[in-house]
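Structure ticket #2291
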Amino acid sequence: MPAPPIQSDPVGYTAQMEWLDHVRWDRDGLVPVIAQEAGSGDVLMFAWMNREALARTAELRQAVYFSRSRQRLWHKGEESGHIQTVHEIRIDCDQDVVLLKVSQLGHEPGIACHTGRHSCFFERLEENAWVSVDPVLKDPASIYK
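Resolution: structure written out below.
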């Protein structure tokens, strides 16, 4: 008696992941991502994701990015403890930018920036010069060891 045929996708994993095909990945297989604080609406940071990072973010409901400098996945907070809990994942009308609505955990108020600030967007252009306008909430030397 012959063996039954092997199902290539027995749990429907491929169908469950089809949503990733709607993202317009760049030539390097990346998509830009904006992390926005769900409560305040503050834009916290900008990063990149590849397919695996976006899939893991959706699965874990925590932000997982792709570090271009290290060429690897980067689970936000893996060193600092400043994890981003993901409440919503949105995509823009061209399907080439992802927006995460997050809660920034690990310090109150949440620190998203490696400089120890709430947001990576802490410099403002004033009279043709960039000026730091947001305080350092925690010394980065005490965050990253």
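Closing remark: Residues 3-7 have pLDDT under 50 and may be disordered.
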